[in-house]
Amino acid sequence: MSGVDLLVPRFDYLAVLAVGTITGLLVFGEELRQLLQRPALWLGAMSFVLFSTLVEVTALSRGWWTFTEDRLLGISFVQVPVEEYLLFFGAYIFTVAAWESFRS
Description:
Elements: H1 3-7, H2 12-35, H3 39-61, E1 76-77, E2 80-81, H4 82-103
Antiparallel strand pairs: 1-2
């Protein structure tokens, strides 16, 4: 058992998302503050989450991939683990923040 297993024995996926989120906040903090005030960002994020959910439900129902249940929180909505929704939302938000940061 490694040191990481001792610290995060069950929620590996959530731990990786937390590290990515903290890193994104540190790198794109100022851009995010400005972006989160734009209604277009929220509309785009919700559209992306909806589309990603449809793809995820399709992939899970067809057996294209699965999740190791004992590594998740255990909370799902429409067969999709809550960690996936966090990934969908975070990926969209941080991609837009990166675009805005590098564009200016």
